[in-house]
Amino acid sequence: MSLRDEQRDILTVGDRQVEYYRIADLKGIDHLPYSLKVLVENLVRNEDGANITDAHVRALLDWEPAADPSHEIQFTPSRVVMQDFTGVPCVVDLATMRDAVKDLGGNPEVINPQVQSDMIIDHSVQIDAYGVDDAVQINMDIEYQRNGERYQFLRWGQQAFENFRVVPPGTGIIHQVNIEYLASVVMTKALADGATLAYLDSCVGTDSHTTTVNGLGVLGWGVGGIEAEAAMLGQPISMLVPRVVGFKLKGSIPEGVTATDVVLTITDILRRHGVVGKFVEFYGEGIAEVPLANRATIGNMSPEFGSTCGIFPIDEVTCDYLRLTGRSEEQVELVRAYAKANKLWHDVNDPDYVEPRYSEYLELDLSTVVPSIAGPKRPQDRIALSESKRLFEETLPGYVGNDTEYDPVSVSTAFRGDFEITNGDVAIASITSCTNTSNPSVMIAAGLIARNAVARGLRPKPWVKTSLAPGSQVVADYLAQAGLQEDLDKLGYQLVGFGCATCIGNSGPLLPEISEAINAHDLTVTAVLSGNRNFEGRISPDVKMNYLASPPLVIAYALAGTMDFDFATQPLGQDPAGRDVYLKDIWPTNEEVERVVAGNVNREMFLKDYASVFEGDARWKGLDVPEGELFAWDPDSTYVRKQTFFDGMTAEPAPVVDIHGARTLALLGDSVTTDHISPAGAFKASSPAGEYLVAHGVEPKDFNSYGSRRGNHEVMVRGTFGNIRLRNLLLGSVGEQIVPGGYTYDFLAMKPTTIYEASRDYIANGIPLVVLGGKEYGTGSSRDWAAKGTAMLGVKAVIVESFERIHRSNLIGMGVLPLQFPEGESAQSLGLDGTELYDIEGIEELNQGRTPKSVHVSATHKDGSRTEFEAVVRIDTPGEADYYRNGGILQYVLRNLMAQ
């Protein structure tokens, strides 16, 4: 009898009984971290005797904290969540797979999500209108005008596919909707024999900040859209059991410090420690004092830590939050009973409590946290607020150019009047993002600062684009009920939409006069946002320096109008009596914030706002939706096009082959993020993507964003590696000027050109391509197009010093080979400048069912000399080897489904 059969048991919850898989009495379970206990339950429940066996479970129970990851398991998430930027390509691929199945003589309806899959449309709203009372309605009207084709397609998908739901636009941000409504913590399903099975909620999502749900004790993390599609289709995720970092929190947050300051501090600590590929788990007596909203804020930033997850265990705080957010009392009791029965309940005062063992240990005394911001281009670069002015002044010279104007520049606008702007001025101050708008304490704090600022006669500077984009309609409810929205409105913080907005790059245009002044005088202006991402070129094409801050500090910087500001010594302005007003004069006390939260955030708000969450408004219901099991592709559509991944696909995969005569498409430095690779934000008519759309009759004003056009591979491949801050060092290697953006050198045409045009030339001549890079290649959001676009450009291998976890996996999922330079070596140390011809041998060993630890790389220089080295093959699991042999994960899944 297998463990799966042995451990099936009955759990009594109140006056009902449910079945569950008991792990509490398994030998070795007591000292396992909470997160690994979740994996044990997952393995026991999904054991099939082939991919998951008793041996896999027992190996996990015998986990050695100090050991390096080596044991492979198959994790089967209970559900998948998607946002629309990455979710639309998922549905495009599923629809294309149906066509491919039909072409191969199969039944298209075998292609359906096998687990509950939810898409929240939250990434498409842009801040076109702001500072006016009807900004929400204006922006939503424009959103539907821009995205009607995509939304019609998604409504078709909602009707055509089983187990697929869509949360319409204007509802909220995926991660906030996830913790406030979708997540169950413990799920149930009806069995064929009439019984009910209770099991742990877990999920993967197409957004790296899926880890927000870790705050609820739900194990989940961000994956590429490619992995998510496989999970939707019933494929487990192959992973190595990770090292687990135990992070003890103690003490309490001091006066004047926010949850945002805490999370920026934790991000700083964990980045310095090094947690890439590891689980981070918070434990100890102190976490009982950490509110659920703060836990979610901390979990949200796991991608910024670099960890796979940042999880808190289930306890009474979890149950209180479930009750507050409208879950039934029956559900709350199920969570409590299940967690206690399976030794998943966290209570250090329980006499039976056993402290977990961890691979590594860290600790933070919350009383030591100080107000902080992070920037100007990475979320882990924390700056104490008291040091912000000095460090800004030290950093600014690295951003100004030869043409930069240092004297103030006059600007005249009809909307905000006449003023002068200069380097360092805050052009955008946006309260936005899942990191903070899911946390009532920081949102109420922002509202109270607004109230106090209005009372003292303060106003934001006229050049600041102000915006408030909450992640949930509940936020709007409690701000209104507390009477704070009126004060926010007076500062220009009217609601602009319910979605990701500024943090995803949808900050919308600056006033034309401001934009023209910035570009004409090469000014270095800044953005301050309450988000989690501030990578170069992400927030606005007009803004060079981006800083993360808490919502109340966002307002403070809007009042100051510049990053060149010391809040301790400089007044924000004067009150009507002419007295100086400092930040300390308008900052609310912790007790005041807590009192307003307690009096204005209630269960009824959540019940009301989520009562019809999948229905949508009149705009959504009025969409003209096509019908049928196969999608009727419109050949003229510039938003949704049938993918080419399956063109010419055969029932059996062809053998993999070594790479010969490859050219370098890009030679890149350290910390190249997926934001540098994957197209996002706005683009110009002169770009390859812009030229494509113009040729198809689209006016530049109707381009929309790359994110909104993710369902059109023709647009996306043209934007890959097109970030305006990308520096392709290959240009310098051939004596050309290194022009920031998507440019390279074409060795066939012997001239500099765009990366897209060069790739077309190489593909037409049958020449494979490689990309060379440095450390931390692919950090950033888990975006499928960073890998899809790389593959579609003809890149066969990426050779770097180190990879970010998700991007490495996604490259394999698209049939691109991830390789690492030998330990301690780099392109520079090996004397490689990208002008060489590359041969990579040893890949064909995969055809014998073996994954080589390394392959031989030979780089032939212009003079005929060679540099040779052994590159480490970063195909880390047998499952990934299967994907690579099949040319990608989708081809692997499709072939498997056809064989059933």
From TrEMBL:
Residues 69-561 form the Aconitase/3-isopropylmalate dehydratase large subunit alpha/beta/alpha domain. Keywords: 4Fe-4S, Iron, Iron-sulfur, Lyase, Metal-binding, Tricarboxylic acid cycle. InterPro entries: AcnA_IRP_Swivel, Acnase/IPM_dHydase_lsu_aba_1/3, Acoase/IPM_deHydtase_lsu_aba, Aconitase/3IPM_dehydase_swvl, Aconitase/IRP2, Aconitase_4Fe-4S_BS, Aconitase_4Fe-4S_dom, AconitaseA/IPMdHydase_ssu_swvl. Its EC number is 4.2.1.3. Pathway: Carbohydrate metabolism; tricarboxylic acid cycle; isocitrate from oxaloacetate: step 2/2. One of its GO terms (biological process) is tricarboxylic acid cycle. Residues 691-823 form the Aconitase A/isopropylmalate dehydratase small subunit swivel domain. PROSITE patterns: ACONITASE_1, ACONITASE_2. GO terms for molecular function: 4 iron, 4 sulfur cluster binding; aconitate hydratase activity; metal ion binding. Transmembrane segments: none annotated. It catalyses: citrate = D-threo-isocitrate. It is an enzyme of class 4 (lyase). NCBIfam families: aconitase_1, PRK09277.1, PRK12881.1. Belongs to the aconitase/IPM isomerase family. Catalyzes the isomerization of citrate to isocitrate via cis-aconitate. This is Aconitate hydratase. The lineage of its organism: Bacteria, Bacillati, Actinomycetota, Actinomycetes, Bifidobacteriales.
